[in-house]
Design goal:
The structure is a homodimer of 191-residue chains. With 191 residues, chain A is an alpha+beta fold. Chain A has two domains: 59 residues, 434 Repressor (Amino-terminal Domain) (Orthogonal Bundle); 102 residues, Jelly Rolls (Sandwich), CATH 2.60.120. In chain A, 22% of the residues lie in helices and 33% in strands. Chain A contains five helices and eleven strands; from the N terminus they run αααααβββββββββββ. In chain A, the strands form two sheets. Chain A has a six-stranded antiparallel β-sheet with strand order 2-3-4-11-6-9, with no helix packed on it. In chain A, strands 5-10-7-8 form a four-stranded antiparallel β-sheet, with no helix packed on it. In chain A, a hairpin with a 5-residue loop joins strand 2 and strand 3. In chain A, helix 2 packs across helix 3 and helix 2 packs across helix 4. Chain A is elongated and about 70 Å long. Chain A starts with 9 loop residues before the first helix and ends in a 7-residue tail after the last strand. The model of chain A has no long low-confidence stretch (mean pLDDT 87). The interface between A and B is large, with 67 and 67 residues. Chain A binds a DNA duplex (30 and 30 nucleotides) through helix 3.
DNA sequence: TACCTGTGTTCACTATAGTGAACACGAGAA
DNA sequence: TTCTCGTGTTCACTATAGTGAACACAGGTA
C-alpha cells in the first residue's frame, strides 16, 4: 500500500466480512459497532478510531494488523532451488557460505549453509533491530558469541539469538564445522 | 496486552518519542498532528482515529503495528540446546524427527531435522493459514508435494512452500535422506 | 527575587466519528 | 403486479476527535 496516505481499511474489512459470509447486521452484533458505522467505514466515508477498528477486528476474529496492513491476497508459495543454483559467498580465508533462500526472501527469512575451517572465526556486524539467527550445527563444534553471551554447540545442537548486536561464530577445533543458519527479520510493512 | 479493551497506545507512543528524545512540538511538526492532540493521546484522554495514529507512526518512523501491539520491551534472546536435549518424534515406520527449537518457539518458528528412510513418505495435514515451510536437503533426494505443486530436490537444494494445505515429503530413492526443516507461522498477537 | 524559556496541559472551539431510525433497493413469493 | 423481506445506505442527531491559543510549571539565568 502507498505510504502517502493513511491505510484504507474499508475494503479490507469488507473483504474479510464477505469471506466469512457475514452481513453488516451480524458483524454489528458481534463487534459492538453499529451497522451504519460499518457501512460508512467499508465505503471509506469515515476515518474510524483505533478502538472502533479493534472492535471490528475482534468481531471478525482477525488480528488488528491484518486489517491495517491491507489484507493482501496471499498466493501460496512453492519455490525450489537446486544446489547448483545457490549463491556462494566466499572471502579469502573466511568461511564458505552458501545462500539457499531466493533473493525475494532477502531481509525477511534468509537461509544459509556455512562451512567453517578449523580455527576460524566469522564476525558479523549488528543486523536490523529485532533480527534473530537460528543455528543448527550439522557437524563439528562451534562457539557462538552474541553480545556478552556465548555457548559452545556440538553437532546436532541448536542455538538462537538476537543478532542486532555484534555476533561471532568461531570454530576453535581442529575439524571443519558445518552449520545451517536461518536469519529472521522483523518485517516492516510499509516503511 | 489484555484482549478485553482496545489497545492503549498512548504509553507506547510516549515511550517511543522519549526514546528518540523528541518533544511534543517536534513530533507535532514531523507528524502533522497537533501538540495538543499528541498530549491527549499520550495521556489516554482521547481515542484517536486510524489516520491520526498512522501520521504519528510516520513521524516516529516506526511501523503502525509497533504502536498498536504495545511496544513491548524486547529482551534479546540467547538460547542454546545441545543435541542430547532435542526432542525426538518417531513413529513406527515413519521418519526420524528431531525437534531442535525450544518449546517457547512453538507456533512461531519451529526447527526440525528429519531423516527419511529409503522409499518412505511423510504426509502432513494443513497447518495454520499462511504457515510456510523451508527445507534444506542435507543428503539424499526428496520430492516435496504441496497441493498441486511438486519438486524433486537433491542434496544441497532448498525448497519453500506454504504448508497450510496437505503436503508430503517423499524419499523415492534407495538411500536415506536427511532434511533440515523450518516451519514459520504467521503470528497472532492477541487472539 | 524576578524573568525568561522550553515543555506539556487544558480550554473553547470546529470538524467529524458513531449511532438509532428511516430510507432505498433488489430478489423472491404470493 | 404487488408485497415482503433482507441487506445496505443515508439522515439527523449526539458524542468526541482534533486544533490554535492560552495557560501551568519547572529550571536556568541575570
Amino acid at each position: 500500500m502507498s505510504t502517502d496516505n493513511p491505510p484504507l481499511i474499508g475494503a479490507t474489512i469488507k473483504k474479510i466480512r464477505k469471506d466469512q459470509s457475514l452481513t453488516l447486521d451480524t458483524l454489528a452484533e458481534r463487534s459492538g459497532v453499529s451497522k451504519a458505522m460499518l457501512s460508512q467505514i467499508e465505503s471509506e466515508k469515515v476515518n474510524p478510531t483505533i478502538a472502533t477498528v479493534w472492535k471490528i477486528a475482534r468481531g471478525l476474529e482477525v488480528e488488528l494488523n491484518d486489517i491495517i496492513k491491507g489484507g493482501k491476497e496471499r498466493v501460496r508459495k512453492f519455490r525450489s532451488i537446486n544446489a547448483d543454483e545457490t549463491t556462494v559467498l566466499d572471502t579469502a580465508g573466511g568461511p564458505h557460505i552458501e545462500v539457499l533462500s531466493p533473493i525475494e526472501m532477502a531481509e525477511d527469512l534468509e537461509v544459509y549453509l556455512l562451512e567453517l575451517s578449523p580455527n576460524s572465526v566469522l564476525t558479523s556486524q549488528p543486523h536490523a533491530p529485532g533480527t534473530e539467527e537460528y543455528l543448527t550445527v550439522l557437524s563439528g563444534t562451534v562457539t557462538v558469541i552474541a553480545g556478552e553471551k556465548s555457548a559452545a554447540v556440538e553437532q546436532g545442537g541448536f542455538v538462537m539469538y538476537n543478532c542486532d548486536i555484534t555476533h561471532t561464530i568461531r570454530n576453535d577445533t581442529a575439524a571443519a564445522a558445518r552449520v545451517h543458519m536461518v536469519v529472521r527479520f522483523l518485517k516492516k510493512n510499509w516503511v
